[in-house]
Amino acid sequence: MTGWRPARVSTAVLLALVAALAGWICLDWWAGNGGEAPPIPWTAVVGTILLATAVVAAGLPVRRWVRGVRDRVLDPLVAARTLVLAKSAAYGGAVLVGWYVAQAVAMLPDLVGSRTAHLVMAVLGALAAVGVVAAGLVVQQWCRIPPPDDEDAEETSRDG
Angle CA(13)–CA(4)–CA(6) in degrees, nearest 5? Predict the structure, then answer.
């Protein structure tokens, strides 16, 4: 793909920090006005883990093909969509990391009763979201086509 810029770790970290700050400000305002912190169900954590797994599963056929195992045809559109999925997972996961970190930080001042359980779920959610970021970055690397060998490049330039 021409003009494609890969997801960068620095951009993902920046997105996570901005999301954490924005989330913490919103949660602090909400709690200051008498609101309860939004619950984090276990299904959110499991769903985040499943998302990371799905990103890796989508990238495996592209990885095999790039490594030379070409027993099946790889549709270029599927490969391009996998690359877009990987980049989206890296950045979307970073925003999720920020949101879960914001919830964890919001729980720290008053750790009693159910707030402790909320803190645990927020930490687990953040860890699962880090998995989504990692999956996106790894699958994006899998989608890279290695540069041609010097001999192949010379043959191509002589033929062309």
Answer: 25
Q: 3-class DSSP state for residue 105?
A: helix
Give the pLDDT means over successive 10-residue stretches in the chain (160 positions): 80 97 94 87 96 96 89 88 95 97 89 81 97 97 78 52
Contact 93, 132 (CB under 8 A): yes
Question: Exposed/middle/buried for 149, CB within 10 Å: 0-12, 13-18, 19+?
Answer: exposed
Q: What is the reported pTM?
A: 0.84
State whether the Cα torsion 15-21-24-30 is positive or negative.
negative
- What the block records as the tokens of 118 is 């909320």
**Residue 135 to residue 31: CA distance in whole angstroms:** 34
- DSSP codes joined into one string, 12-74: HHHHHHHHHHHHHHHHHHHHHTTPPPPP--HHHHHHHHHHHHHHHHHHHHHHHHHTT--SS--
